[in-house]
Specification:
Helices cover 31% and strands 20% of the residues. It contains eight helices and 13 strands. A three-stranded antiparallel sheet has the order 1-7-6, with helices on one face. The protein has a three-stranded antiparallel sheet with strand order 8-2-9, with no helix packed on it. The protein is of the alpha+beta class. The longest helix is centred in the middle third of the chain and has 30 residues.
Length: 264
Amino acid sequence: MSQTPGAPQITGKLFLFERPELLNKEQHGNLGVSPPAAPCKFCANVAAIPLTASEIPAAVKDYPVVFLSAEEPVPLAVVGLIDQLNLFVDENGKWADDTYIPGYVRRYPFAIASETGGERLAIVVDTAYDGIVPGGETPLFDNGEPTQATQQAIEFCKAYETDRRMTDQFVQLVKDSGLVKPQAAQYTPRDSSEPKPFAQYFGVDEQGMNELTDEQFLTLRKSNILPFLYAQLMSLGNWRNLLMRRAKRFGLTEDEVFKQINLN
């Protein structure tokens, strides 16, 4: 006699999620979403945000894009330096205007939970989010069914999950290329000729790219990852912009840009 399998269980941790729960009408039928005063407070104290591969061309306009490691080259948008502080979220908990907001942030407080070793998916909601409240402005459920707003959030999560799984393939191709190496970001103040290293990260080895044989280059071109590798290299010009954003946030001069700040 067969048994109906239970819902996927949440195991491990979800980055930025404080109290993730599987979305269901029994637990969350009376909850809704009301825009909080500080909508991005949940990601105000992080230095990097995960990206999918398809986001890289948009993200490189605003952020240094780096990789998690050589063994697991997941793309990340760097949003903070020195302090554990997202420099794109202001003191009012709002993301900087006219900059790309990563999909990981836009889908919050929802996400996808997948069954370990299986294909079933379930929607997760972070009930610790300030915008999730009883009787919220936009209900999660109506007569036991997801509202249109909830359904739109679910569809966005599904699209993001599709993108994420495609990114897994991208990550493997980047790893196989052997081109991701430890790097150091350096900054040279205007009145100095001595560059100062200020961040360690994993990125594309530009010299390695230049030394590729024709056969190796063709292999990378056929894999369709070359544009992303070049985009990552181009994004490194944003390190200086990030430093200047930090200086502006804390009222620092160029000479003080690496000064440790007490955030407490």
